Structures are given as structure tokens and as C-alpha cells.
């Protein structure tokens, strides 16, 4: 997602982009998830995360609309459905902080009684309605962006190391064959971004403080809608619901024609493995009981072992739960940018990050004001370790999708 978004942003500005991808097909990493949400984060004080995700979701929706108009995406691939956010007591703060007007101006309002009833939630339950929010199928999303003119996609090319010289950047495979040469390189290879940077630093002398990327495993449970009892099918909310994981229904799963339901996701720290596990289906079933208590009992049949399917992936996160974007060390490594650490919000943030990279390369105004852009800057980690002047970031900020 990060690589495709940056490639599209650059190609739109007339760059020839060589996308070098290790896997033999798209959707190899976390971006292979069957479906996910682009939805704003709302906080009573309209904090940095809220403002950044709002800008990010807007960028994602604009790009999805443009790709749909161009015929690269269809109604099967995404939908501006709106999302109902169940503000579960004790997990998310009261939405009616004094800054709610900022969120309201961008389409986040109190959910109506009709919307609450459609989700099977009691009318006094705290909930927001995000009109500017969408479900999206990431594999189609990635493919649509990479199909843009000016982008050459090379699958099955594992970058083993990178090097730089006066001529620019070179990418090498495990047999030390040159894969590509370029004046400007964007590393959007999730965890391997740190591995490639470390190898580069090892080739040279001098200390290097790498990006502190952490794995965060997640599993989605899903099944066919038509395999559920007819009464349960009628109970399914007509739009996605989030707030404690997310529930989406009526979307086709990869490789299927039929409509499916999806509930996710689990969050498991420090786990870099992604097998599908039965106990994680149980965790998702428990999650559904909190998110949509009246629907959960009716969905029990869907979680029977012969019906439920799963997909698991590993999110690549940074301690402050925001991506690392842009030049990592412009003096030492001019022309080398990174775009990683999308965490649990790649759908909401990757396009914004791609735009930040492209505007930097083109010396155009960035899509975020400087006071927000600095929170995404890849250099924040390098600088923080180097000078120890910046305030310490929380080691583990709260996680949500
Ligand atoms: C269960 C789950 C549910 C999620 N739900 C949501 C959601 O609802 N909304 C949302 O916004 N986000 C969601 N996310 C997060 C989202 O999926 C990620 O943020 C996003 O996919 C990260 O994209 P990426 O491109 O940075 O990383 P990846 O998708 O991991 O892509 C990295 C790519 O780099 C390639 N690569 C790596 N090393 C090399 C190398 N050496 N040479 C060449 N290529 C290389 C890989 O093959 C891969 O294709 C979810 C994640 C999970 C796991």
C-alpha cells in the first residue's frame, strides 16, 4: 500500500517509477488483507492523530474517487458507505469534547436513531457517524494505483542491499546483480526498510539509529453471508461498524464472488508470524459481542469451524503509532526517502504519505501544515536519538484501526 501510493503520487507528477517488489504477486504483506476501513479518528481535543487521519482519509477518498472515474476501481473494490463508530465506554473517550465541531465540519456527527437501530444498538449508546469513511479492498486498491501510466512493476525481485554513489542509488539482489538504478529511492518495504538501512549503515562508518519498527500481528475472521440463517442476514448492519475492531458485511472476499462478512482484528504485539489460528477466531467472536452485542449471538453459526475463514498479517508499527515518511538523513544519504510504519492505518494514511514524498521531491507545498508534518517525518527518530533534545514519545501509544 505504501509503495503503490508513493509510486502513484510520483507518476501523477510525471516521474517514471520503477517498483521493485519481492513477492511474485501483489498483496504479499499486510496489504493483502481482504478488506479494511478508511475512517477518521476523533478525539475530544482533536489531537494530532485525529487531524492527521482526517487529512489522510480525505486523500484516500479523493484518490479512490479519481481511480473509479478512470475505470481502475469499481463498486466491488470500495464503497463510500459511511462508518458508524460505537464509542465503547472505557475504551474511547466521550466524543462530545469541546473540539467536536472540528470533526463535525469534516462529516463526523452523532449517529442518528435510525443509524443506531440499523446497527442494532440502543439509542442511548454513544456512537458517531462518519460520513467521510469507506470500506476498501486493499489488493484491488494497490493494483489500481500500480496500473497508472509511468509505473513499471517488477515482481519477484528481492532487494538484498542498496548502495549509493555520485550517480544515485543502486538496488542489488542476493546474487549481487543490479536490479535498478535511480536518482531518488523510496524504501516502502515495511520491516525490510530498517534491514536495508542497517545494511547501508554497516557498509559505512559512523553510528546509525535505525527506525524502531515493531511487528503487530492481526487476524480477521470472515465467512459467506448466504451461509448465515436468513434472520441473521436481515440483522447485518447495512454499513461498517468500528470502535472495537470493525465489522463489515456485503463485500466479496478475494477469490470469491459471494458477499462475505468480516470481523477483525486481533492485536498481538511482537509476533512476526501470520498463521491463521482458531483461538483468534474466538477472540474476534468476543470482540463482536462488545462491538455489536445484539448481533453477536446470531452470528455464532458463522464462527463454526466449517464456516469461518481467516486471514492474518503483520502490521509494521512505530512507538508513536504514526508512519515514518520522507528523507531519513539528507546530508548522509541525499535522495533516500522512506515510507513505512503504516501500523494499523495504511488505508487511511498511505496516500497522504505518498503525497508528502512526491511534494518533497517536487518542492511543492506539502499536504499537511508543518506542525502536523513534523509528526510523520522519518527524521524524528534519527534526530531524537542523535540529540536527545526532543521530548520522549510514549513507548506504546494506544492502538486501534
Ligand atoms: C489484520 C489486519 C487488519 C487491518 N485493518 C486495517 C484497516 O481496517 N484499515 C487500515 O487502514 N489498515 C488496516 N491494516 C493495516 C494495513 O494493512 C497496513 O498498514 C498496510 O497494509 C501496510 O502497508 P505497507 O505497504 O507499508 O506494508 P506491506 O503491505 O507489508 O508491504 C510491504 C511490501 O514490501 C515488499 N518487500 C519487503 N521487503 C522487500 C525487499 N527486500 N525487496 C523487495 N520488496 C520487499 C513486500 O513483499 C510487501 O509487498 C490492517 C492490518 C492487519 C494485519
CATH T-level topology of the domain at 142-213 and 321-387? FAD/NAD(P)-binding domain
Largest sheet: 9 strands, mixed
- Average pLDDT rating: 91
C-alpha-based Rg, rounded: 21 Å
CATH class of the domain at 142-213 and 321-387: Alpha Beta
Q: What name goes with the CATH superfamily of the domain at 142-213 and 321-387?
A: FAD/NAD(P)-binding domain
* Helical coverage, percent range: 25-40%
Which regions are unreliable across 5 or more consecutive residues at pLDDT < 50? 384-395
Name the shape in a single word. Answer: globular
Q: Assign the structural class, choosing from mainly alpha, mainly beta, alpha/beta, alpha+beta, or little secondary structure.
A: alpha+beta
How large is the share of residues in beta strands?
Answer: 15-25%
Cofactors and ligands present? flavin-adenine dinucleotide
How far the N terminus sits from the C terminus, by CA atoms, comes to 16 Å
Question: Do you know the CATH architecture of the domain at 142-213 and 321-387?
Answer: 3-Layer(bba) Sandwich
Number of strands: 20
Total of DSSP H or I helical runs spanning 4+ residues: 11
Descriptive report:
By secondary structure, the chain is α+β, with helices and mostly antiparallel strands. It is built from 11 helices and 20 strands. Strands 4, 5, 6, 13, 14, 15, 16, 17 and 18 form a 9-stranded mixed sheet that branches. Strands 2-7-3 form a 3-stranded antiparallel sheet. Strands 9-10-11 form a 3-stranded antiparallel sheet. Helix 1 packs parallel to helix 5, helix 1 runs parallel beside helix 9 and helix 2 packs across helix 9. The longest helix is centred in the first third of the chain and has 22 residues. The two termini are 16 Å apart.
